[in-house]
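Researcher: Structure for this, please.
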Amino acid sequence: MSFPRFPLPDWRRSGAVVGAVSLVLGVSACGGDDHSDHSHDDHSVSVDDAWVKATGANMSAVFGTITNDTDAEVVIESVESSVTDSVELHEAATDGDQSVMRPMEEPLTIASEESHTLEAGGDHIMLLALDEPIETGQEVVLTLNLAEGDDLEFTAVAKEFAGADEEYDPGHADDHGDGD
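Model: Predicted structure, token format:
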């Protein structure tokens, strides 16, 4: 299955790409539906405990833990999804005395032998402009597009979640809609 790519503009990714080392990653299905892994010898990049917020609104978020067990940093430039063409990496930022969610200004970089948690109130993957609800138990396929030229596909299972009603950066709120 092919998804459209939404790369960052050259001026935003050039700094991140300088430090990236080319990785050869192979795809393998591992364990359950919420775990995917790309391996080269004994090293891998994986997404564990991936889940997406079930919603009837026009946007949702994906959470989990991305682990880089390789010898080099991994740079995630963009994300694709099976449920929408509009996907963004988001971060929590402070706007005055208020915490807001907004698109990341730089690609997400995960150092060698480190993990990065995607969580409500912190960094996460935003699914925007949803045409259909995401139902509890539904599987959503996502692909992390890495600067090294490889992709990491994983599946997030939808579940009910009462949180994740964060405020969004006013410059982006109109782009996302308010679910009405």
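Researcher: Any notable elements?
Model: Helices lie at 10-18, 170-176. The chain is about 10% helix and 45% strand.
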